[in-house]
C-alpha cells in the first residue's frame, strides 16, 4: 500500500476548481469591422484594437452583441465543413395517426 503525502494533495482541489472555471469561460467570437474606417476607432473595452487586416477575437458579451446588432462589426465567416454528419431523417406527420 502506497501512502500519499499530504504535501502532494495540498492545493489539488483548488487547482481542479480553477481549471474547471477556466474551461467554463465562454470562448470569444471572431469579428471584423463592417467598414474599414471602423478598424482604427473600434475597440472592445476588455480587448484590443483590430489588427491592420483580418479579424479580432472579442468576448461574447453584451458589448459585442450590441456592435453586431447595430452593424458596426460582423462575424467572421466560418469555413464550410465538408463533414456535417449523416442527414436527419424526414419526420412526416401521418394524417391517419391523428
Commentary on this structure:
The chain has 98 residues and is α+β, with helices and mostly antiparallel strands. The chain has a domain at 27-77. It is 33% helix and 11% strand. It contains 4 helices and 3 strands. Strands 2-1-3 form a 3-stranded antiparallel sheet. The longest helix has 13 residues, at 12-24. It is flat.
Topology:
Layout: H1 6-9, H2 12-24, E1 29-33, H3 36-41, E2 56-58, H4 62-70, E3 73-75
Antiparallel strand pairs: 1-2, 1-3
Low-confidence stretches: none
Overall residue-averaged pLDDT value = 82
Structural class: alpha+beta
Q: Per the principal axes of the C-alpha atoms, what is the gross shape?
A: flat
Strand order, biggest sheet? 2-1-3
Major pleated sheet: 3 strands, antiparallel
Element-level helix/strand string: HHEHEHE
Summed up, the helix count is 4
Strand content: 5-15%
**Secondary structure tally: strands:** 3
Radius of gyration: 24 Å
**Termini gap:** 66 Å
What's this entry about, in short?
By secondary structure, the protein is an alpha+beta fold. Helices cover 33% and strands 11% of the residues. The chain starts with 5 loop residues before the first helix and ends in a 23-residue tail after the last strand.
Amino acid at each position: 500500500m502506497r501512502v500519499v503525502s499530504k504535501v502532494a494533495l495540498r492545493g489539488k482541489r483548488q487547482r481542479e476548481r480553477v481549471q474547471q472555471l477556466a474551461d467554463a469561460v465562454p470562448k470569444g467570437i471572431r469579428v471584423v469591422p463592417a467598414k474599414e474606417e471602423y478598424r482604427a476607432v473600434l475597440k472592445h473595452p476588455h480587448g484590443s484594437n483590430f489588427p491592420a487586416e483580418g479579424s479580432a477575437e472579442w468576448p461574447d458579451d453584451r458589448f459585442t452583441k450590441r456592435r453586431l446588432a447595430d452593424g458596426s462589426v460582423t462575424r467572421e465567416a466560418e469555413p464550410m465543413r465538408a463533414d456535417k454528419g449523416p442527414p436527419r431523417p424526414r419526420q412526416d406527420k401521418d394524417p391517419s395517426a391523428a
